[in-house]
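Structure request: Sensor protein, Pseudomonas flexibilis.
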Amino acid sequence: MRRLSLTARLSLLFMLAVAGVLAGSGFFFNHLSQHHFDELDQQTLSVAAAAAERLLREAPPASRDGQLRALFSGQADLQARILEDGRPLFATPERGAAPFGAGSGEWRYEGRAWRGLERNVVVGQRPVSIQLMLDVTTHQVFSHQLAGWLWAGLGLAALLSVLLGWLLVRSGLRPLRQVTEVIASVSARSLEERIEQEVPAELRALVRAFNAMLARLEDSFVRLSNFSADIAHELRTPVTNLLTHTEVVLTRARSVEDYQENLHSNLEELRRMARMIDDMLFLAKADNGLIIPEQRPVALHELCASLLDFYELSAEERGIRFELSGEATLQGDVLMLRRALSNLLSNALRYTPDGGSIRLTLRQSEHSVCLALANPGGTIAAEHLERLFDRFYRVDPARREGHPGNAGLGLAITRSIVEAHRGRIRCHSAEGWTTFELEFRV
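Returned structure:
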């Protein structure tokens, strides 16, 4: 079943609210008017009964009948009958117009409505019954007509409220339609567009959230575009080398040694391409949450010491010293952590000047484990620090093609491994020192 639009639902709710208020007001007003007429009728009967009782007690018997007729003659709608010991003592001339009801109450007779009152008194030690009845047909007809007009007015007001509510809601939702038009116009080529913030307060949170989403999409789209271009750049060099070497070898017949040398050269390029593809697959799995590290105790001091032993030979050739301090234990995957630290160490060795020192510091607290790796070298500008962990990103554009053994994916892989271990990685660079800080929650 097709659901009603927001405009239709708000219009109906507005109509129901207006109809409910009017119905409640009409019911209260009608009930109040009926109560008012009932009190007037009851007051008329009570005053007449009190006056008749006073005449019966105070008027001489000779003039009593005349005074009673004078009392009731001015009220055409009022009928009276007075009984003494069950015998008629007085009755208005129109007493045959309608039979008296039994005591006080209401009744109908020949299409007319009557309200009665009976009062028993003692006059001269004799019981006297004063019976009155009042024609209230006019009041009831007025009440019925008033109720009819109220219900008719309620129906008309409901119809008008639907129309008015539809107009008001449509006018009120105009900013939402404008936002919808802007959203509908957004495409991959117009991600830089933003919705204006001059909207009603109810839509500001939606607009801010949508603008933030557009910013994230634009950033992701730019990164994806750059990533595609970077892949083409990185793969172009080994593919070009393979083509060039193969074409040169095939220009003429060569010896077996020449063919072997060319195949070894091609093998190096193929290995480089295979490492790049493996790294990209690893990052793709990390982006989709498919990298789930093992949870085993890892002694970080021992892990760092074994890595430093591995890089010791390369460091000694350039006079670089390693400094390791601190103890820490972390629940994680030792192979993945080894790969992440190896990427950081190889990166530090690459940019540390000859004769420098690389410092590894471990700290453990109640809630976290921290590892800091600092190396001397050129200071990295602040605008590059956040992008160091992007794929294929290099601070120096002149080195865009990269080192044959470095595709520019090491720091990106390191960040993925750290985040898979519920940690975060930051980089600080100042006064000729660059520090990578890894923090893990425990």
